[in-house]
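seq as requested:
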Amino acid sequence: MTTARPEPATCFYPTGGIELAVHEWASEGGGVPLVFAHATGFHGRVWGAIIDAFPAHPAYGIDLRGHGLSRAEPITDWRILASDVADFLEQTGLSGAVGIGHSMGAHTLLQVAADNPGRFARLVLFDPVILAPEFYGDGTPVYTAEKPHPAIRRKRDFASADAMIERFATRDPYDLFTPRVFEDYCRYGLVPAASGEGMELACAPEVEASVYASSRSNGAILQATKRVNIPVLVVRALHTDLNDFKSSPTWPELANILPQGTNLYRPDMTHFHPFQDPADAARIIGEFMGGN
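struct tokens:
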């Protein structure tokens, strides 16, 4: 059984008009740093169960813009997320790190690696939101103010984290998550409500909806991918339908256009692989890191 690491310190880095929150797990083991980037609607603390498997490595769980404690307005371009992460890496002087990303966070880390050679030595990307070239077209938003993404209707207010846990524990897709990941998602995914009563989602529904709406904004990611000349593992789950949150959004050819890409197809997993089976995700990361 993996032993839980001490609680991380939360530090803030100024970037692009916001304070980017990063949860930092210290280590005296001398291992290479691990940098984690989460999926849309989540936050950096959801990686805790996986981070516990790497006690010798300092670890950094980023709250991407508008998520967790990185308070921000809705976005219109995914490249601003990569700019935030690049600023954090520059301010801390981190280099030669292993980047581990999931979904939108995996897209973000790949863009950062393309624009900032040397910051990452390897990447492990769980179901990156990088689709086939035809998806991006002219970059027209997928959703609009008149027809917003359904996330805009997400329940915002909760009396407490326990109330959120009780409400969602048996609902799809949260019932796929291990208890540790699910509780971390709820407990660290709320902030005191603006009204002064109870709690509200740290990732406001309008922010989450804006991320989905702008998912075509960085079609240049496919050209950027070709510049990432480090080992990159692309872990793909089962693809069924882009309208299904549990389906893989990843272009099956992505690993083939990476100079040192490796494709790992896992049809036994959904898009929530790191939450479904964090022990398996940690094993994949550890094996790809080798002796690092």
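The chain has one domain: 9-142+217-289.
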